[in-house]
Amino acid sequence: MLFSFYANANNSNEVKRDTAIAQVVYGKDYLFKSIDHLSPAELKSYKDSLTAITPAPIKLIDQVNLLLKIRTMGFDELYTAIDSLFELDHVPYPLINELNRYISENQQELLNFANETIDTSQFPANYYYHSWNTITPNPYKANELAQNDSIIEIKLIGTQRSTAFVMPIEDKLTSKYGWRNGRMHKGIDIDLQVWDTVVTAFSGMVRVARNYRGYGRVVVVRHFNGLETLYAHLHRIKVEPGQIVAPGELVGLGGSSGHSTGSHLHWEVRFKGHPINPLNFLDYETGTLINDILVLQKTKHGFAGYPKGSAFYVVENGDYLYKIASECGTTVSKLCKLNGIKRNSPLIVGQKLRVI
Predict the structure, then answer these.
(1) DSSP letter string over 5-66?
(2) Is the entire prediction scored with pTM above 0.70?
(3) Residue 194 above 50 pLDDT?
(4) Which domains does the chain have, with CATH numbers?
(5) Bridge partners for 236 per DSSP
C-alpha cells in the first residue's frame, strides 16, 4: 500500500490516520518536472499557447491536461489511479511518482476532502449506522452502536428491497469462521480461480471498493436490511462506492490480492461492525438460507446469529453429545455441524447448543 487514511465514521471534525502519508518514489523521473510548479491558471494559459503551435505538440498538451486532472482528484480517484497503473504491462513510474508527490504535498487538503460531512440519510440502513465511510471496510465503534441492543430480527429476503439471496460464488469451502492458528477468522474462505466472477449476496449499495491492507482488493456492500457483506482478495473490482447492486450482481473477479496464500474469496457478514458466522444461517451445501429471518442476539463481544425457529439445549453436569442428541431427536453429526464443534470437543456446563 502506498498510503492510507480514513475519516472519522461519526463525521466529527477529528480525522484519524492509520498510516502516515509519505512520498514514495520509483526512480528519479517525474512526468511534469518542468511545469508542475505552475498554478492551474498558468497551466491553462500554457496549454492555450501550445495549441497555437503548428504542428501542435499533442503529447505535451495531453500531459498538461493530465496534470490539471490530477489536481482535481479526490482520495478515492487517486488511490484507484495508482492501483490501476501498477496493473499495466509497462508501469508508468514517472506518472506514479507525480501522483505520489501531489499526495505528499497536499496532505491536509486531501484529509479535509475525505472528512467532508455528507447526508447519510440517503444510504441503506442509516437508522442503524448514521454514517457512510468509503475508505475503511470496518470503521464503526461497534460496542457503541450495539450497546442498547438485545435481540434483533432481520428479514433476509422477502421484502421489496431484499428479494433474494445468492451465494457469492459456488465452490469448495476451504476455511470456516472461527479461531484459526491462534487468530479469529471473521469470515469464511471459498475456493476459486483467478478471474472467476464474484457476486453480491443481497441487494444493497456498495460502500467500499478499493485496495485495503490485508484484504487486498475488497468490496463492502451495505444491505437494506442492515447487514454488510465483504468480498476480499479480488483480482479486479467491478463496482464503485454508491452503486446499487442486486442479488447475484457482479462485484469483482476472484484473485489472491492482499495477505493471501492462494486464490480464494474471503467473505464476511457483519452487523454494526460485528462479524456474524454465515454458516449459522445458511445451508452451504445447497447455497440456500435456512430461514428468511435472522435472529441476532447481543453477546458480550458481539452478536450470535441464528435462523428464526432454532432451538437450544443448555448443557448440564454429566451431559455428552450422544446423550444430548438422543434426547433432542437428532444426531451427533448434526449437533457438530450446527454448532461448529467436533465429536471430541469438551462440553461446558451452561453451554448452549443449537439442536434445530
Answers:
(1) -EE-TT--S-EE-SS-------SS--TTTTTTTS-HHHHHHHHHHHHTSSS--HHHHHHHHH
(2) no
(3) yes
(4) 6-114 (no CATH), 126-294 (2.70.70.10), 312-354 (3.10.350.10)
(5) 253
